[in-house]
Amino acid sequence: MARLREEYNKTIKKELMKEGGYTNEMEVPTLKKIVVNVGAGEAVTNSGALDEIVEMLKLITGQKPVVNRAKKAVSAFKIREGMEIGVSATLRGDRMWEFFDKLVNIVFPRTKDFRGLDVKSFDGAGNYSIGIEDHTVFVEIDPNNVTKVRSLQVTIVTTAKNDKDAKMLLDKFGFPFKKDVNKS
To answer: What is the pLDDT of residues 97-115, one digit of tens each?
Structure first.
């Protein structure tokens, strides 16, 4: 079992029940899934880029990603309907918990000039999205073998009903939110 899942079940769930005023254990918010996306618009002109992105995402997530196709044509970007323009992986279960652990404890501390994550990146339904500009911060990627630095979008989907509960959940895991300096 993943380390953070154990910690959640042993201590964090009880703390959240007390702090959130939940009466039933099933009400307590938890992580549902993590979706990792990489845009591959460059694949329009460079056919090898898509294979490189698939391999990179496979190393980072530990599972084979899905190649996403364009739903409609956009002439300004030279994209036709059905073209392969993105790669994504949806993590659940132990892989999700291990990826979340790696994200919080390894990736963010390795990120250059990291000042914390913005609290405003919640979507109103308890989900949080993060943009990672440099994929080489993941330990699985060898920076010497990288042809182009790519960015990823990570969406953390929780069972929380609102942003306040989701933030409370992520805070318990030591999620590195920016400290509000304007508070008195």
So the answer is: 999 999 988 888 888 788 8
The span from the CA of 29 to the CA of 157, in Å, is 10
Beta bridge mates, 117: 177
Q: Which residues, 6 or more positions from 23, have their beta carbon under 8 angstroms from its beta carbon? A: none
Here the tokens at position 55 are: 């391999």
pLDDT digits 0-9 by tens, 1-13: 678 889 989 999 9
- Characterise 107 by phi-psi region: left (phi > 0), alpha (psi -120 to 50), beta (else): alpha
**Res. 90 pLDDT band, cuts 50 70 90:** very high
Predicted TM-score (pTM) of the model is 0.87
d(CA 130, CA 118): 9
Q: For residue 60, what are the CA distances in angstroms to 57, 85, 102?
A: 5, 19, 10
Domains in the chain and their CATH numbers? 31-171 (3.30.1440.10)
Helix or strand or coil: residue 184?
coil
Burial class (CB in 10 A: 0-12, 13-18, 19+), 104: middle
With the CA atoms of 26, 29, 35 and 36 taken in that order, what torsion angle do they form, in degrees rounded to the nearest 10?
-140
Q: Which residue has the tokens 């942003």?
A: 163
Going from the C-alpha of 178 to that of each of 6, 11, 33, 168, the distances in angstroms are 26, 24, 23, 14
